[in-house]
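Supplementary Note 3. Input sequence used for the single-chain structure prediction.
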Amino acid sequence: MIFGLHHCLMDEKGRVAFPAALRPALGPSTGDEDVTRFVLTQSLYEPCLVGMTELEFQAQADKIRALPPSNPAVALFKRFVIAPATVATIDKAGRVNVPKEQREYAGLERDCVWLGVVDKIELWSRVKYDELRKKHAEEDLAAARAFLAEHGL
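The predicted structure, written as discrete structure tokens, is reproduced below.
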């Protein structure tokens, strides 16, 4: 299981530190213990990037390949998830270079947040992540209050 919340800063070249605590989720390294590879791509569901092992990405590609190519959802997945994917490498300084197109898609600037979310890793703009948390916190709190009020609390 992957979990954790890690704030970090992106430099002017688009490099961002990759948390050591999340590295085991990516599986074994490529032979050099200081370098780990993984696939980084756009999320189809949120304004963030998603990191996964190359095997997990291949499994997704195999599943999408088995679906009818004429289906609009399949075409959308190919264009928004498969096409912009890149193999990211954690360098000896523990950083990942995020391509410009991916930075623009996720709105990444200086302040970033890595999240371990059970089965994948997400990279968010801190501003967008804080906005999402605030939005959901307000909605969830209102729903919890309504539920508890119905039950006399």
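Residues 126-150 form the longest helix (25 residues). The chain has one domain: 2-126.
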